[in-house]
Amino acid sequence: MPEETGAQLGLRTLEDISALILQSHDLQETLANIVNLVAKRMATDVCSIYLLEEDGETLRLHATRGLSRLSVGITMKISEGLTGLAVETRGVVATDNAPLHPRYKYFRQTKEEKVLSFLGVPFFERNNPIGVIVVQNREARTFTPAEVSALSTIAWQISSIVSNAKLLDSVRKKEEERAFYEAEVERLKQTGAPQESSPAKRASTRQAMLSGIGIAPGFSAGKVTILNRGNSAQPVVERARPRAEEHKRLKIALEKARIQTIYLEKRVSEMLSEADAAIFHSHLMILEDRGFAGKISSLIDEGLGAQRAVSEVVGQYVAAFSQMADPYLRERSADMEDIGRRLVDALNGHQRSPDKLPENRIIIARELLPSDLATMDPGKVIGIATEKGNLNAHAAIMARALGIPAVFGVEGLLKQVGVRSFVIVDGTSGCVYLNPDQSVKLEYQRLQGEYDQKQRALEGIRELPAETPDGCRVNLLANIGLLSDVRVAHLNGAEGVGLYRTEFPFMTRRSFPDREVQASVYQKVLEGFPGMPVTIRTLDIGGDKGLSYFPHPKEDNPFLGWRSIRVSLERQDIFREQLAGILIASPHGRCNLMFPLISGVDEVRTIKGILEEVKEELRRDGKPFDEEVKVGIMVELPAAVLVADQLAREVDYFSIGTNDLIQYTLACDRNNQKVRKWYDPYHPAVLQAIKRVADAAAGAGIPATLCGEMAAEPINAVLLMGMGVRSFSLSAPCLPRVKEAIRRTPLSRARRIADRVLALETAQGIRGYLEGVEKELGAEP
Ligand code: PEP
Ligand code: MG
């Protein structure tokens, strides 16, 4: 390889590829430019890019330098040849004598007989392979790890170009479809189809009950403030300006939007937490992205005004995100709209000042964007209802953190609501009442009264211990993921954290955070609970949790696949970095380490070995950490239940993860609605499993916390307490109700309940019995 290192070469080529993308408007052209560039930089005789067709089995040659030009367009199956092998194995294929490789296949059209060495690197869109970049040489050449790494970096860059092009293509198709249907509707109207009368006229007084998704629980009733009604449908009318002036306007607007975003980031980190403010950090990255600004500039070059160009490019991104299969990514389209709106405002010199909101308002919007909430005075907002949005939307996360009752996804809301409407938002059930009649208002007043009373009663016990009337002390801890959960945990009287799901700080980033970055996040959580235990669980990705920047193999059964600790043990680079991050943070509180999805003793021993090595490395580096950090495991596989006695001798504590334990015991995907009825915490096998683990922990003298959703139901917590569980970790808002039940039920009673339940043979019988008990307990003073 020439003088420069693989990393330098990768970086330099990457920069040039970025420039190429800016210059060209067509995928084919870009790929052709890339193969020329790579062949030159890596001094190879051949460089080719193959893309996988929609059938997922056929590779098509899209660009080549060095093979016959006529071969562009040839196809091959992924079961054939070395290029196919790279897709099949999802990995790098390298050889210095290709014809001797068992998978070698000669493709006559390519005229490649003189080529000996081969290096092929697949690239992925999310977790699926979408193509391969191949370099070849006539002489036998062994590609160095640095070269392989350089080509991998280039492959990664190509994947984003290809996915972007594909997405834009489908956006174009969708546009065509929409235009077709619009024309059809217009045609039908003209041929006399009945037309809907304008709904806006009577909107202010119209009565209706609409339903959506309950985003943040609680009720609120009051007058409305309607935000950005129909903003996206406004046609952009711009006066014509010289092109150079439009470029200048864009530059200034980008800078203004950037400064405003920095301001929003700061404001949200003060209002909520730094982790919540990370939303705006990703906005900043887009505003600073050369590709984004470049696309807008090229449209200006084509003759569009700056505002039109911004709207077009943002529209393409929004449409692209909206079509993503992953719900988290789909919700990122709202962030894109937010950025677009800020840019357009900056172009027009508009300043939004929603702080002028009147007191006690219910916000109605087509969609609420993170910056809407960030710039509002949350003290004046009593409720939120929107047409768009979902549980995962950033605005939803913020509404929950701010404790504002909210319902998102209410279809037809803006058509029906008027400026003088009176609205009730029920964030618990997901209902929105427009101009309800007196009886509904009274019913809600009653419910509101009860809710407030209950909240006050629960607040009253916040500082009290979770102790039964006969003196059994139970630990109530919180399950957390975001830094803003720390505040919610305290509001609900948590005595520490029983499960910190570290996937979340990883999800809000674009690449794996290094040990120092991780340590600073963990440190904040530890400092949020002074003197209290905080159990930090290592990455539990796979199954239903993915990281956009970490390619994951496509699996037929992801929950039975490469997930959780299995990923950590095979990607020890990531695992060790995380262990180091947690240990570095450990002196800042009472830190416990926890490992998910453990199946047996051998795994625990391997993990402990790795942990020791990481500790040794930190000692060598002079990095202090808590030598007493406790090591625990999640018992969530039936295998772990069966060997719980042995596992208990290896670790300091257990945490029973019933969410997974139920799914694995009953072979029921926890997210599959179709098998929902089989996912039953009352199945006797599940309850026997929990009992067995609690007994094993007690026998070995180690604590066992239960951290699955099951214990969020107060009656279940009582049952589990009767079975021997003395510590629960729950989503924080569920803690007060569970505490109340514990404070009301003597342990002796809970034990009798548990004995009876464990003797029953069917889930149905157990459910029926517990319903009866619940009524009795509820009736007791
Ligand atoms: C569990 O499996 O019960 C658990 C708490 O972990 P998670 O829901 O994160 O898989
Ligand atoms: Mg789990």
UniProtKB/TrEMBL annotation:
<protein>
    <recommendedName>
        <fullName>phosphoenolpyruvate--protein phosphotransferase</fullName>
        <ecNumber>2.7.3.9</ecNumber>
    </recommendedName>
</protein>
<dbReference type="InterPro" id="IPR029016">
    <property type="entry name" value="GAF-like_dom_sf"/>
</dbReference>
<keyword id="KW-0963">Cytoplasm</keyword>
<dbReference type="Pfam" id="PF13185">
    <property type="entry name" value="GAF_2"/>
</dbReference>
<keyword id="KW-0175">Coiled coil</keyword>
<dbReference type="InterPro" id="IPR003018">
    <property type="entry name" value="GAF"/>
</dbReference>
<keyword id="KW-0598">Phosphotransferase system</keyword>
<keyword id="KW-0670">Pyruvate</keyword>
<dbReference type="InterPro" id="IPR008731">
    <property type="entry name" value="PTS_EIN"/>
</dbReference>
<dbReference type="Pfam" id="PF00391">
    <property type="entry name" value="PEP-utilizers"/>
</dbReference>
<dbReference type="InterPro" id="IPR006318">
    <property type="entry name" value="PTS_EI-like"/>
</dbReference>
<dbReference type="InterPro" id="IPR040442">
    <property type="entry name" value="Pyrv_kinase-like_dom_sf"/>
</dbReference>
<dbReference type="GO" id="GO:0008965">
    <property type="term" value="F:phosphoenolpyruvate-protein phosphotransferase activity"/>
</dbReference>
<dbReference type="InterPro" id="IPR050499">
    <property type="entry name" value="PEP-utilizing_PTS_enzyme"/>
</dbReference>
<dbReference type="InterPro" id="IPR008279">
    <property type="entry name" value="PEP-util_enz_mobile_dom"/>
</dbReference>
<dbReference type="GO" id="GO:0005737">
    <property type="term" value="C:cytoplasm"/>
</dbReference>
<dbReference type="GO" id="GO:0009401">
    <property type="term" value="P:phosphoenolpyruvate-dependent sugar phosphotransferase system"/>
</dbReference>
<dbReference type="InterPro" id="IPR036618">
    <property type="entry name" value="PtsI_HPr-bd_sf"/>
</dbReference>
<dbReference type="Pfam" id="PF05524">
    <property type="entry name" value="PEP-utilisers_N"/>
</dbReference>
<dbReference type="InterPro" id="IPR000121">
    <property type="entry name" value="PEP_util_C"/>
</dbReference>
<dbReference type="InterPro" id="IPR015813">
    <property type="entry name" value="Pyrv/PenolPyrv_kinase-like_dom"/>
</dbReference>
<dbReference type="GO" id="GO:0046872">
    <property type="term" value="F:metal ion binding"/>
</dbReference>
<dbReference type="InterPro" id="IPR036637">
    <property type="entry name" value="Phosphohistidine_dom_sf"/>
</dbReference>
<dbReference type="Pfam" id="PF02896">
    <property type="entry name" value="PEP-utilizers_C"/>
</dbReference>
<comment type="similarity">
    <text>Belongs to the PEP-utilizing enzyme family.</text>
</comment>
<keyword id="KW-0808">Transferase</keyword>
<keyword id="KW-0460">Magnesium</keyword>
<keyword id="KW-0813">Transport</keyword>
<dbReference type="InterPro" id="IPR023151">
    <property type="entry name" value="PEP_util_CS"/>
</dbReference>
<keyword id="KW-0762">Sugar transport</keyword>
<dbReference type="GO" id="GO:0016301">
    <property type="term" value="F:kinase activity"/>
</dbReference>
<feature type="domain" description="GAF">
    <location>
        <begin position="26"/>
        <end position="172"/>
    </location>
</feature>
<feature type="coiled-coil region">
    <location>
        <begin position="164"/>
        <end position="191"/>
    </location>
</feature>
<keyword id="KW-0418">Kinase</keyword>
<keyword id="KW-0479">Metal-binding</keyword>
